[in-house]
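We close this part of the discussion by returning to an individual protein. The amino acid sequence and the backbone structure tokens for this protein are reproduced below:
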Amino acid sequence: MKHSLLTAACSAAFLLTGCNGASNATQSGDDAAAQAQPADGKPFVATEVATFDEPWAMTFLPDGRLLVTEKEGKLKLLDTASKRVGEISGVPEVDYGGQGGFGDVVLHPKFASNGLVYLSYAEKGDGDTRGGAVARGKLTLDKNGGGALSGVKVIWRQVPKVSGRGHYGHRIAFDKDGKLWISSSERQKFDPAQDMKSNLGKIVRLNDDGSVPADNPFADQGGVAAQVWSLGHRNALGLAFDAQGRLWEHEMGPKGGDELNLIERGSNYGYPIVSNGDHYDGRDIPDHDTRPEFNAPEVFWNPVISPAGFIIYSGDLFPDWKGDGFIGGLSSQALIRIEFDGVKAREAARYDMGKRIREVEQGPDGAIWLLEDEGGARLLKLTPPAPAKT
């Protein structure tokens, strides 16, 4: 029986400040409390900008427009000033259903000169199989508020394709050196997370064209093992680099035990051998502390938050939050703020949003943008409240 890390009152109320689910955290006041607070007590104002149908991810173009993926297979283009929504053609065909469909959208670090956009999605295989894939193509915008992708090519696939439509992961991030990182979840198959003949349940590091860097930790093993940077992951749905270049990842645990991990070269994070949650059928999974050879999470949540979307804030609009992480919560219907202290982390605050939050992004002006989940999902822009009148 795993112990609960949130008090019942905190879990039920989703307190707006200091509600903490971390095993290594202590409760503290919100560092934004001195700001003028809106009537609901939050240290920001949320403004609805647009709505989308089952959105999954978003990324800003250099001109301030926004690309948004919708799970069923559409890539939308939003002019955030006029609120006009167009569509991008030429996208890959997706296998839509369950947790599958369109996934992440990320720009190449040199997008301004090469126009390359990276997309992840669920791809149909032989028979009743499917798996995650990442493709890239060149984006050309038109004068009518839309555009098209050309030269689309798949540069990575989950191996093997398996049955079911859960746990794709397929979050994408680029580091400061231009390397491509992909979270590859274990597709609800458990054991592949520990199998180096599969890239399921792994964090993958590639060159921008999908080739394998020679300095990857398992490169000498060849095959899909050469792609792997870390293993033993379950359903990894958030990747973000901090200002020092460290990669942080969050993933959904089984029945309990959602995790925030610092990703280290060649490290094994233990799933399904260890977890701070249990199997859904009631079978116990040993806790991380029973197997110290596996890398334990920096923060874990039980009850869960169901994390989705992740940024580490670097803007100036919320100066007190620079360097903090923000995680969207699905079942928790919240925005969770993480404070980092070097390689340590803790939940600092939880803001009740009243809806499942699928995606978090930082805007060009430092605003924080959220996408709700499912049909009729709102795109929200978070900005500081007006200063208090003296």
User: Anything to note?
Assistant: The helical segments are 8-13, 111-114. The radius of gyration is 20 Å.
